[in-house]
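Lab notebook, bench 4. The sequencing result for the construct came back, and we need a structural model before the next group meeting so we can plan mutations. Quick request posted to the team channel:

Model the 3D structure of this chain.
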Amino acid sequence: MRRTPRRIRSRRARRPFAAFLTALGLLGGLLLASPRADTGGTEPVAETSNSATVFYSTKTKNWPTTYLHYAPTGGSWTTVPGVRMEAACTDWVKQTVDLGSAAGLQATFNNGSGVWDNNGGANYALGTGSIAVKDGTVAHTDPCTTTGGSGNAATVYYYTGTVGWAAYNLHYAPTGGAWTTAPGVGMEPACTDWVKKTVDLGTATTWQATFNNGNGVWDNNNGANYLLKSGISTVRNKTVTASATDPCAAAPPDTEAPTAPAGVRASVTDTSVVLSWNASSDNTGVTGYQVTRTGGTQATVVADTTSTVRTDTGLDAHTAYTYVVRARDAAGNVSAASAAVTATTGDAPVTKAGQPLGGDPRKDPIYFVLTARFYDGDSSNDRGGSQHVKSGNAANNDPMFRGDFKGLVEKLDYVKGLGFSAIWITPVVLNRSDYDYHGYHGYDFYKVDPRLESAGASYQDLINAAHAKGMKIYQDVVYNHSSRWGAKGLFTPTVYGLRDSQWSWYYDQKQDGFAYDGLTVEPVSGKSYYNGDLWSTAEPSGNTCVNWGKPTGGKSAEGYTVYNCQWPSPTSGMFPKTYYHQCWIGNWEGEDSRSCWLHEDLADFNTESTPVQNYLIGAYNKYIDMGVDGFRIDTAVHIPRSTWNRRFLPAIYNEVTAKFGAAKAQDFFVFGEVAAFVNDKWNRGSVNHSAQFYTWKERKEYSADDAAAAIEQYDYEEQLGTGNQPTSNNAFLNGNTYHTPDHSRFSGMNIIDMRMHMNFGDASNAYNNGRDSDDSTNDATYNVVYVDSHDYGPNKSTTRYAGGTDAWAENMSLMWTFRGIPTLYYGSETEFQAGKQIDCGPTCPLATTGRAYYGAHLEGSVTASGFGTVASASGAVATTLAQPLAKHVQRLNQIRRAVPALQLGQYSTEGISGDMAFKRRYTDTASGVDSFALVAVTNAATYKGIPNGTYTDAVTGDVRVVGDGTLSVAAPGKGNLRVYVLNGPGRIGSAGPYLK
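Done. Here's the predicted structure in token form:
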């Protein structure tokens, strides 16, 4: 789980797209007040219009005619092909439409002969006023506007590189003259990072100017306005240069087209075609590609993409389609067409989803990644959000949403080459908060976050690609809470704070018809993190929030008036009790920790409510149906065990069974985060807050009402106390004998081994603490074991583990041979960000934290020849794989995979002397498997009373023949170990930095 800081105050700039006004956000971290000159200190607001003039760039289309096919918001579409657009200026056509009372329109464009630009099937969502559409991007501007006259001329260039608005307006007054009507006149593109405007000053030789985005965000030189002269002036980062040279003059016009895309290839699955190609080159840089498809019943289709992969789905069955690809640059130059490639579709699919791989999850070591911070396969879905500048990420060119599914698909062989056969990924549902890259602020639980997906690299594509390599996907899921914006499709609040002149910088102007998805830019505000659906200028109809709009008496950090309902609260009436709990947690070991809010950014679901249960069950059934292999459950301890056992866990296994059968349901792996950050067996004496407690079914019947049952169950178990909890021998051998485990009382939820995690400052401490809890866990051989994670290091440290390479190697040697499933947080194989603060929200750059972007370590190519083996690697990733801990974990995975006792076995320390020494055995008569291993980590050990026979060390190949039931092992050294296997396979793998 990850929380964001409270009450974020400042909006921040995004990176601009080259050579066109598609940049997002606000001026580099400044709170921009309105111009002084003609507004009396109040913020000008762009005038409302019931018409829209739509400009469309024709430079890269080469259409003989262009038609606008549109529908006002809430209205009907025009008759196909729409209305013919008229010439506007060079490379632009336009059409003005009457919207009536609508606040915007949806639009598509076509050539009148069946070739369409419909924004990749999403249509264009446009506002009012002047709107320009160019190569799939939208700006709130008039690209053809010029200002002339007979007086003194002045031209001002405004630098956009650190601002990032969607549109730029110049609001000005000649000295002695009147100001323009706010927001002023639209500025036009000049060159990369610059816009300009030429104005007529009449007889004046000086003038004042301010700049704005047309939607209430201003740069007025910190209230002083900019004082300019006639001639050419530049304004860059609040610095005025008079009598300046044209900042764009030095750059000669770009007339060189990119090279034609090469290596175009197509693969067919049912009626879907995945098209990919090699990146083109250009003298200034390729900005995108045009894919033209012919064939089938859908005529010719031209699509724009910034990726080198595009997926076509829903095509006609048994039909040949031909594709050509062209590259374009920022100047609009288009390459020659690629060589054509033809693909013929097959049968229409019965289902697009895969199915879980199945197999015992204990066989699969887990690699845990924050998807958005792992590897960036597609930069077009990168997003910095409202905290891009404040966090320091902008200065590092490191948007919070950077890695994606495409990047993970591209680096699956890296993970496989390390030896991992399961990947735990952070939540995939659409998130919403000021800093939501981690995924724990779910907003639309039924929608995959578009900032993680790409053409040809959807979530389904990731699941299928992993399965094709024999790797499982474990999806992180959150049942406990939504974002502070609520949960779309269940309940979203509409009464967030009063939008007065002070708060208009934070709350966007409401735009009916626009739906937040984290990726799409809202055309009027120019932001992908638009929040205009959650503000009000007057008390909304049906408001339930107490004292809405009344000042609290407090002030924000900026000195603004804070109103009631300005921020989410469980006690204000803002969130109805049908869907959300109504209290703050007061006692973290009390019943309220399972029925109250953790934080204002994490609106706590009323999980005992049927509508909430149905919403969450329906959402997660969708991902089960896609074929995921298991769920990691976030904040599991904050939902009553009775609710898990009655509702959510049965729903999971019932859906897997219904979709894929009982065998796959048995192997579907569910493991919960029961965050008991203590070093003892029971969390401060509370059984209800201890991890092992959640592995058991209920022992009695409770009230039919889930809310009442939760309290009854809590009280009953607390009264019984720690001495009256169920016990199990499922993890333990009977002497040297494996026995069939009894899972009849298993709840269905396995656990993260919090006790070992807390004690991993020292491997021996983790080992002895961990096994002390195993008798109260239903089956500890399924425990997920890690040293550190995206939340904490050992002993609840806020920094990534920094015990040193030898200690890391020792920890790994223990995890890969002791009971449980070894799990590694991304980058630990190189001690990535060791000692760095794991999370500091937007108060420091992500690059300085434990959640830094890992992609630089993965550049280059890698091909895995098996789990734990690499056929080839080049570039930075080859260097990464050569690191000592990477080599160490590769061989540990090879050994563990070859010895069933290390994967599935029960263990015992009976008859054994020596710390971190144990024996493990797994027996399956049906398959003829009987695997018995003696393990010594770091220290010397002696094993007595063991079966006689020939033992071979999997590390060194040393052979011992035991005839008297005793075997002694000399200390192998820190990080090293010995694994003597009865009738074993011999030495496994090659000597490395530790295993030798």
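Confidence is low (pLDDT under 50) at residues 2-48.
Will bring this to the meeting.
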